[in-house]
Amino acid sequence: MVSPKLSNTIVIALFLLFFTYESKGESYSFSSSSHKTSFDHQKVNLSIYYESLDKGSATFLVKNLDEIFNNDIINIVNLQLIPWANSHVNQANNSISCQHGPDECELNSLASCALNIWPNVNEHYGLIYCIEFLAIDGKNKMWKNCTKILGLPEKLFMNCFNRGNGTELGKKHINETAKLNPPHSFVPWVVVNNQPIRKDYAKFTYFVCKAYKGDAIPAACNVHLNGK
After folding, report:
1. Which domain of life, per UniProt (predicted)?
2. What is the mean pLDDT of residues 41-63?
């Protein structure tokens, strides 16, 4: 099981994966200990609408969103990841067209399966992080190694993907995105408590901390709210 503070371990594992993939074709797995902090339940809803091969989305998911897993902000957030944000359903044949082509549809489908099979945010974010990390480096075809790196069971996940269930789930994500008010105009489209933060998405932690009304304020919020 993947726990918070996972990114450094994933990066190291991916580095090893790249090295062994190019030299021996071997793979690595890891496990990490959990870190839990007690916070109250007045959580902030944080929704991220994205596309898997969009460079801005991938960078945000790997380099920006990762921040909340390396401090206690994740404990005050209900995080929802919504792929397929710029994809469209062809009503004539019920197929989906993705902004960056079939490879993106494949990765979006994988994300949908992960979200469905592993509702625990630490598990599905870990897998999506791994996939997007590879996508940034143009190595998205190596996605099959991500479940091995994270020690996640593969059978249900691959069944979901191979049977096309991820695409069917994708249609639900597309419908959900279509209900946005106001509509999204780019990705990543970041929404905090139903309010889009538009071009300020890189500063999402500030908006999350500002929206949080609970008493147990994470120490990291003091940095974002007070600059110290």
Report:
1. Eukaryota
2. 96
